[in-house]
Structure formats: structure tokens, C-alpha cells
Design a protein that fits this description.
CATH topology of the domain at 41-136: Immunoglobulin-like
Order of helices and strands: HEHEEEEEEE
Distance between the termini: 64 Å
Radius of gyration: 26 Å
Low-confidence stretches: none
Shape: elongated
CATH class of the domain at 41-136: Mainly Beta
Largest sheet: 5 strands, mixed
Strand content: 35-45%
Length: 138
Amino acid sequence: MKNRFLSILAAIALAGIFAGCQTDHGAYLPENATKNNYEDSEQLVLMDAMVQHSVTSPGIQQTRLQDGRLEVAANLRNRESRRIQVQAQCEFKDGQGFTIDSSPWNTVILTENGQETVRFTSMNDRAQRYTVRVRQAH
């Protein structure tokens, strides 16, 4: 009985070893790399469905300051007839789209059907592009 138990246990162990010996075939490409990849191409992105329903942006303005830093002003408009609270942040990017500077998240209170301008200034003169990001405030 003891020998039979040990032989069954050994067979299970061998099956597990051989089953785990399958080789992988190398690296894999990322899936859906371009699907919903708006942060690389758009100047303003809405980070969740609630904000997408509630907020729009009628305009964004960019200005170079005298010291070379980039200043971005984005108008955020509340599309609802109730007061909402969102957070906005700006990712400043180099010419290839890599983030070189990020502003902190700022809380913005939008009154009923109201509009507010949020301003962001890069920390250095290397910023060439930007993405303003808006998310729901918790």
C-alpha cells in the first residue's frame, strides 16, 4: 500500500515537471497599444466617463513666457445644471511626447453651466507639447 502511494505520488510529480517544461517563444507585442491612446495626441483628455459627460473645453491657449517656459490656459465648461467638482492637471512634454514635467492636480469647482479657466506653467523651457488631464474629484 505504501509503495503504491509513493509510485502514484511520483507519477503525479513527473507529470507536473514535464507539463511545466514547455518553452515560451520569446517576447510579445503590447495589445491594443493605440486604442484609446489619446494622451499622446490630444491637448485635453477627460479621464473617466462621468467627467466626459459633465465637462467640455471650448478652448485652450498656450503662450511662451519671456524665460521660455510654456504656459497653458484651458477653459473648462460644466455641461450640467448642477455644481460639480473636478481636478485638472497638465503633463508638459518634449518634442517626442515624453513627459518632462507634471503639474499637481488642482481642484476646480464648476458652477451650474459655468466656465472656469485653469492655468498651468511648465517648470523649465524644454516643454514643447502638453496634455491637460481632467478627472472626477473624490
